């Protein structure tokens, strides 16, 4: 993707800043922003530690941790090593979950946080080296505003970096690396799988460079797609040797059966329908590790959003076929669509799209549209961080969270506002493409 090297409108012209200074500032700001969680607040890092110990050493090793830390695990009897896989995460996550086990257990959270800080530095370096210095600065600011509170205590920057590496490799026509990077992201978190069709289409478009139409199907290049499938199948099959249901079926069952999470657009629509008209009182339930919304309308809303996801995928492929979207813009459109229509919108999901948002910002013209796009994402980042920082501490106790959430002033309203802005960003991405196709 050809990036414009003009200065973004909301930061000074610092394109000549050396990368070490940029990474130092990023590390200092992000570590200070989320240090309170690393040392004080209960986070998902404690779950990661439980999963890693359980897999490598069996259920007997859970006694090395505080008594209440791993009570979320539903274990039946004594479990041997190499048997129980993470319930809500793909099995390859055992690699990042296990690396901090090399230090004593009390230092697990700090070690994991420092590892994620290193991943953030690598992501910013990729933007600096292969996109532009301004992209790195813009990405740093958005990480601080929108992802800082959770960047070090979640692993979502790993699949996000894989997607960024995929896009950079594809732009440099290194298709093997692009497909392997996308496969790695898919094995860490399933969401990068949605980008496979647009990556495959971009490769075929590259083969037809200089021609208006794609080559005939018999002339398409399939070996990289088969490499992706083989990589995902082999890694998943390897873990299936330890626990077939846990490696292949459990993550899909986990996500298919969970109700809409309270921050999702589906939950906001259910809350809005209950507030605007008569109906059953909004029911909240703490399950699947999060606060969720239960409503008779939930299946209808989820089905509607699933239909929109399918239509959006087809529209993205059509815009890319017409040359309106390049791979970068198609990937951003699909990830925004996935977040908007999904049943879960955790605060760390912003980490999925921040690197892509930066690229879209730098390529937009005229300046007025770029300014609107930048301000929109600043608002989304600030609202998402405020929801997590100011409201989530009140919901730490699963037993009382459903009742407490309904007494928090502005909780559902701020979530609705944030989701409305993300919806505007999603529709704007597609609308901008449709406008250019005219």
What does this structure look like?
This protein is an all-alpha fold. It has a domain at 258-438. The chain contains 17 helices and 2 strands. A two-stranded antiparallel ribbon has the order 1-2. A hairpin with a 2-residue loop joins strand 1 and strand 2. Helix 4 packs parallel to helix 6 and helix 5 packs parallel to helix 15. The two termini are 21 Å apart. Residues 1-15 have low confidence and may be disordered.
In terms of quaternary structure, the protein is: single chain
**Strand adjacency order, main sheet:** 1-2
Estimated structural class: mainly alpha
Task: Give me the number of helical elements.
Answer: 17
Terminal CA distance reads: 21 Å
Helix content: 55-70%
Query: What is Rg?
Result: 22 Å
How many beta-strand elements?
2
Mean pLDDT: 85
Strand-and-helix sequence, N→C?
HHHHHHHHHHHEEHHHHHH
- Kindly estimate the percentage of residues that lie in beta strands according to DSSP: under 5%
Which runs of at least 5 residues are low in confidence (pLDDT < 50)?
1-15
Main sheet attributes: strand count, strand direction, barrel closure:
2 strands, antiparallel
- What's the shape? globular
